[in-house]
Amino acid sequence: MKLNLKHIRWSHYLNYLVIGIFTLVMAIIALTGGHINNSMLFLLEKIAVSIILAVSLSLVVGFLGELSLGHAGFMCVGAYLGGKVAAVLEPSIGNGVGSLILGLVIGGAAAAVCGVVIGIPALRLRGDYLAIVTLAFGEIVKSIFQNTSDASFGGALGLETPRFDKQYLFIFAFLLVLLTLAAAQNFIRSKHGRAVTAIRDNEIAARACGINVTKYKLITFTLSAFFAGIAGVLYSFSNYTVQSAKFGYNYSIEILVMVVLGGMGSINGAIISAALITFLNTKLATVLTGDLAVLQNLLYALILIIIVVYNNAPALKSFRVRYNLHVFFDKVVRRGKDPSHRSDDRAKWDVVPTKIEMNEILSIDLKPQNLSGDKPTHDDSKGGKG
Amino acid sequence: MELFLSTLINGLSLGGIYAMIALGYTMVYGIAKMLNFAHGDIIMVGGYVIYVFMAFHNPLLAILIAVIFCVLLGMTIEKIAYKPLRGASPLAVLITAIGVSYLLQSLAQIIFGSANKVVTVYDFGSVTFLGVNVQISALVTLAITVVVMVALTLFVKCTRLGRAMIAVSEDKGAAQLMGINVDGIITITFAIGSALAALAGLFYLLKAPSISSTLGAMPGIKAFTAAVIGGIGSIPGAMLGGLLLGMVECISYKITAIAPYTDAIEFSILIIILLVRPTGFLGKKRREKV
Question: Domains (ranges, CATH) in chain A?
């Protein structure tokens, strides 16, 4: 098959290019003896971890449309197993690329297995119940690792892990970011990904089209868990201890904030907001010390509420259509060019009705003469004034 | 025997608190069809309000103010955060509720600091019964919960407003066509739920006179478990679920003797119950229609 360069949508690959060039530039600076201080290195590693987490959660929340509140739990599994691998291997082969790869394989696989184990039963549930089950899973994982013996996983004090022995872990971290991005993006743009978004937009209609809902939910859930595990392994290689207390409900919420801020169903949005929030977190942590540190949580809470209400309130719909970043982007950057470049991955809760309005269909098909008169509008999905 | 009795009594007293929270949950979930994550944090707000107004050394006054404050708070939250999202995706509402929960926690931490506050509302003392030391406050908790449960059941079954609530929970559209003010009913539901949360805050203070900004978060989630066990939307179910959960927590604490594992056990039970019987013991089964 001949590859026609004209048919490739280059704008789809802009994100790889940006991250790739950024990584390359930083790597060149670092490897040619330029000075990147330790706090900067650490920040880069943290950003990479956050991006992987946000992208993987975005698969479940943004594309599958289910809320997972236990994402940090999967990360916890990855972090503990990856850290354990590093600690075991350190005396023999040192803590370099070899143990990183092995750690990634084991940690990622373990998290994915957890994803399947919790996913098979849990995905029969939906909405609030699924959210609660994932939350419960996160807490269970946390408390299991908290109560391990000192020799196995360090118990309540946490597992001591040797840090990566090269200085430039961030290069590998960003390569993993690219890998995650490639996996997520290609998944979403494949037949399987389209099935997943179809399930999000209308599960019953998707089922009626012959989509195996449970299978696709499970695939998405497992993929998301796998990359959360990868992020966990990276975390354990970039820190000296892994403490289960960190991977609680609050951390899951932090990841959720990144996804929501970036825009549900937008991978690039998740990447940008993950990088931004992690950067701000680190900078704010130096300013807001002691009791002030809680201001950060306040900020998260406000962001979460405002963004979600703004993006979803039915009353703000016309306002949203007129004023959003896409319109702004089209006006300023593309100067009113055809907006067909927009990717169709985005969540469309506004556009897609949650229920098929049978009466409307019937009234159009069978009684066209009736349309000018009073059309029956059965609006029972909305309730209230809507 | 003594061990059994003391576990039973501890379990019932803890279960009474869970039952009270679960009653609020089940009301709100049954009628507004949303998981109000902030419910647990309203408990905490109630506790703090009692703490502040105990400066007047009048427990009844402090409790009254706490209930009123929480009712107003619940209605405000509903108005600002949840009402604009009526008709939007359930996921959006759920995330907003999490945001509200987070907001209340961090506001409380900003106002009162991260250290625990200590306040004794009223010391009921204790009696010895069959060789077991029983806190009277535990019995008071249980008694109030039972009274509230009975009152709520009567309210929902026998008053116009209560029947309107049932109608809204069955079918919002039809309820509206029958002339019921659906928005008003939902607001009232939130008001009732918040009042129950304030009472739960009081129970916590009676049990252990110390309060922090995360007081309500975990109990809130566990009480949701209780509501699910009993069957969400069912008032006696919430009571039953709450008591069961309290017993489970006390028994598993006695067995493992390590606090974190009790969480794991409770959450495992939650997962199992949700999977095996998502409608709970006393809940009604609903079929989803297109």
Answer: 9-275 (1.10.3470), 353-386 (no CATH)
Domain count, chain B: 1
Pure H helices in A59-190 = 71-93, 97-122, 128-146, 169-189
Residue whose entry in the numeric block shows the structure tokens 């939650």 = B270
B255 touches chain A (CB under 8 A): no
- DSSP 8-state symbol, B213: T
Residue entry with tokens 């985005």: A346
Q: Residue B110: which domain range? A: 2-216
Contact list in B for residue A356 (CB cut-off 8 A) is 290
Instruction: Tell me, rounded to whole angstroms, the distance of Cα A24 from its chain centroid.
Output: 24
Select from B29, B109, B275 the Cβ nearest to the Cβ of A121.
B275
Planar angle of CA B155, B158, B163, nearest 5 degrees: 85
Domain membership of residue B266 (yes or no) is: no
Residue B228 belongs to some domain of the structure:
no
Query: Which of B95, B100, B172 to mutate: most A Cβ within 10 Å?
Result: B95
Distance CA A334, CA A11 (A): 13
CA–CA separation, B133 vs A201, rounded Å? Answer: 57
pLDDT along chain B (290 residues), means of 10: 79 90 89 86 92 86 93 93 85 88 90 82 75 80 92 92 90 89 92 93 87 84 84 86 88 73 81 77 60
Asked if A301 lies within 8 A of B99 by C-beta distance, the reply is yes
In this prediction, residues A86-106 reach a mean pLDDT of 83
Question: CA–CA distance from B73 to each of A171, B32, B60, B102, B174 (Å)?
Answer: 49, 17, 20, 15, 29
Residues β-bridged to residue A13? none
User: Is residue B233 assigned to a domain?
Assistant: no
Q: Are B173 and A297 an interchain contact pair (Cβ–Cβ within 8 Å)? A: no
Instruction: Please check whether residue B247 lies inside any domain of the structure.
Output: no
Residue with tokens 């060039």: A21
Q: To the nearest 10°, the Cα dihedral for A214, A219, A223, A229? A: 60
Average confidence (pLDDT) over A186-207: 91
CA A144, A148, A151: angle at the middle one, nearest 5?
Answer: 155
Q: Kindly state whether B88 is in contact with chain A, defined as any CB-CB distance less than 8 angstroms.
A: yes
User: Do the Cβ atoms of A382 and B86 come within 8 Å?
Assistant: yes
What is the per-residue burial (b if ≥16 Cβ within 10 Å, else e) of A332-366? eeeeeeeeeeeeebbbebeeeebeebeeeeebeee
Bridge partners of A159, per DSSP, are A242
Backbone angles phi, psi at A241, to 5 degrees: -135, 150
The number of CA neighbours under 13 Å toward the Cβ of B261 is 12
The per-residue pLDDT for range A267-326, each reduced to its tens digit, is 988 999 999 999 988 888 777 776 677 788 888 888 888 888 888 888 777 777 777 776
pTM score, two decimals?
0.82
